[in-house]
Design goal:
The chain is built from two helices and eleven strands. The protein is α+β, with helices and mostly antiparallel strands. The relative contact order is 0.22.
Length: 204
């Protein structure tokens, strides 16, 4: 009975705790500015095996931006374009690692040619296991799809975004957001874990 009361207390504590939105957007930075570590709560990088890729993310002015005037860019010859075909020899995808586990992520995927593009958002845990993914329909030039993944728990450690893994399309990316726990929530989760551990010990 006492154990059930402790569990109920923990659930009430966590459910009443809050979360906060962290975001990354290239607007406000001049072209070719390194914005890899410019945003609180996350680190951006370019990943893949494409020749010349330096692992960083830059701001770049672009008429296809979904918000403002700039999008995320890399330093390869593709610049503002992103793929998700990240083999050892190919690919130039956008990766975002979160300081705290997220339960919701979203990014704007923008078609960049008239023949149509499919983009994708892929969420992973700390063990590099793909948790969930979402891909757009075929996007025409300048069409925007806000890819979003919502989870029931805070378990997203990082995301990769770009052209769909199943295609060789390239897309533009803008306006990344993630929902992470507030510091008070983390304290409550830790306290709840301690209470449950102590309760289990008292039962045995």
């Amino acid at each position: 009975m006492k154990n059930l009361l402790v569990v109920a207390l923990v659930l009430v504590m966590v459910s009443s705790a809050g979360a906060t939105i962290i975001s990354a957007d290239a607007d406000g930075y001049s072209d070719d500015t390194d914005i890899s570590t410019a945003f609180d709560g996350m680190t951006l990088s370019s990943v893949g095996g494409y020749s010349g890729l330096d692992g960083l993310v830059y701001a770049w002015g672009d008429g296809l931006a979904s918000t403002g005037v700039s999008v995320f860019a890399n330093n390869s010859s593709f610049e503002r374009q992103w793929s998700a075909h990240i083999t050892e020899t190919e690919g130039f995808a956008l990766r975002a690692d979160f300081d705290q586990l997220a339960n919701s992520v979203a990014i704007d995927i923008i078609g960049d040619d008239s023949s149509g593009d499919i983009g994708g958002l892929y969420a992973y845990n700390f063990g590099d296991v793909l948790l969930e993914s979402v891909e757009s329909d075929v996007l025409g030039y300048g069409e925007v799809f806000t890819a979003q993944i919502n989870r029931s728990s805070f378990d997203i450690a990082y995301i990769i975004a770009g052209g769909a893994i199943s295609t060789e399309d390239t897309v533009h990316l803008d306006n990344l957001t993630a929902n992470v726990p507030e510091p008070a929530t983390l304290c409550l989760l830790g306290l709840g874990g301690l209470l449950l551990t102590r309760s289990r010990r008292m039962l045995y």
